[in-house]
Amino acid sequence: MMACRRGSRDDLPFLEELQVGRQAKPNLLETVRLVEPWSRPELPFWVLPGAGYALWDLAGHERTTRRPIARLWDLQVAPEHNALQVAAALLDASEAELPKGLHRLVLTTAEDGHWSPILASRGYEVETLRMTRELSHHRLDGPRLSSFRARPLRDGDRALLRVLAATNLTHTLPAGRQEELDQFQSATQQYFEEFDPMAADLIGLVAVEKSTRRSIGYILVNLESEGLAYLRDISVRPEYWGRYAAQFLVRAAENELVQRGYREIYADISADNPRSYRTAQRSLGFKKAGQLWGRSG
Amino acid sequence: MRESELVNAFQAAFLKRCPACAQDLPMSATQCSGCGGDLPREEESAPLSFLHQAGLETLRPDSSEGSANLRRLRRCVEGVHKQTMSLVEYLDQVGEVYDEVTNNLELLTSPIIVESLKEQDEALIAIHRRAVAALEAFQAGCEMMMGYSGDGDFSPAERGLNQVEIALAEVDDSELSASEALAEIE
Q1: DSSP summary character for residue A138
Q2: Is the pLDDT reported for residue B72 higher than 70?
Q3: Using the beta-carbon criterion (under 8 Å), do A166 and B106 form an inter-chain contact?
Q4: Is residue A13 less than 8 Å (CB to CB) from chain B?
Q5: pLDDT by residue (tens digit) across A251-264?
Q6: Which residues in chain A are closer than 8 Å to B2, comparing Cβ atoms?
Q7: Which of A233, A259, A286, B55 could, after both became Cys, cross-link A158 (CB 3.0–4.6 A)?
């Protein structure tokens, strides 16, 4: 097998050839043409001529910690080649040249789930599970949900966010990264100190128990492009767990999203948190769409 | 609530950052666990204003008219007096302020903030105690206001508002004292 090499502009026809007929990321080729990764050091890619390519994005930051990360943007193998061998060669070639110290993240969907053994054998661990759900409108006046009401997040909720985020952080920490708890805690607290509850790309709601008028949880949803929304954070006071408060919050946020024309929401759940996974799947109607693998660089 | 988790969380609020590699470190660290470098001495003294840290800006009187929450509570009392506000609306509004103050108190009295204060100057510890007491009085004032039942006896609402006004003056005074104490320490 030929050796992998760093990609260049001359590889565009090969990238185009591999992209033809792909359904999962139909806009990727257009994006690649637009951003011209061969001229950007933050978008390095490696090619195994005639067999496949791996394209990385070094410009992003991890949402939670805001640390710079190396994200595998796309990995493709020509159908006539051994997918696992080519993927392994491309990952190894990338790894040899990617900057040290950057945490690596790779999202595998159902389409590319066959890369899993390659990732696992190279020290990657499933950190979070990617869950998605098509949005729909919900009634909130049923017997389980009617004891709560939702109100928009406001500046005075900073203390609530900080206390609840801190309380529940150990449940949301990506699997395999427990030793980074302090860094996650610090980043979370800093995030909420600088947080703008009125940001245009955010829906923030607080659930209030009607009988006590106490705020018992919150949900933060980032508005993305193309009708997509990201459930960034949801947290409920532990004494209200099992009382449908999370379901209420997700549904209230969904109603808001539907009203604004959004069609799909996705969330990342720690692979160490089976309780949240079950809640998302059974009570909230989310489906598993992929998994986010990570390893330290 | 798991106390240990909360402790970890608020410990993070008092972390310092390595100027060389941006690694987050405990306040007590003298050497970076990330890059191994020595930490500059001036980094060791944490600028600490717990009222600011706890996000209590909305409680502080920001002008002669008082804080946003105080103005809101005054409007509530005025509203029920003039019958321009229903009892439910009154209770919802006062309830929201009560909720906010309770959340702030929860943050301010979290074990890690209390623990961190043990390493601080005695003046700051005393100010923290005053601030907590003032917030508790504020909270109690809101509770008293929520005792108004719409029967024409406005005394719970008025007495509660009066308590809140006194408590807010104390919160403001605590914050001023904290600023002065910090300035002296620095």
Answers
A1: -
A2: yes
A3: no
A4: no
A5: 999 999 999 999 99
A6: 167, 238
A7: B55
Least confident of A58-67, A118-127, A171-180, B11-20: B11-20
- Rounded to two decimals, the pTM is 0.78
Q: Report the Cα–Cα distance between both ends of chain B, in Å, rounded.
A: 36
**Residues B88, B96 contacting (CB under 8 angstroms):** no
> CB–CB of B2 and A215 under 8 A?
no
Structure tokens belonging to residue B120: 């601080």
Q: Which burial class, exposed, middle or buried, applies to A15 when counting CB atoms under 10 A from its CB (0-12, 13-18, 19+)?
A: buried
User: How close does chain B come to A225, measured CA to CA in Å?
Assistant: 32
> Would the ipTM clear 0.90, i.e. be above it?
no
pLDDT tens across A101-115, in order? 899 999 988 777 778
Buried b (16+ CB within 10 A) or exposed e, B125-160: eebbebbbebbebbbbbbbbbbebeeeeeeebbeeb
The DSSP result for B25-41, as a single string, is: E-TT-SB-TTT-PBPPG
Rounded to an integer, what distance in angstroms lies between the CA atom of residue A236 and that of residue A207? 9
What residues of chain B lie within 8 A of the CB of A155, using their CB?
58
DSSP A279: I
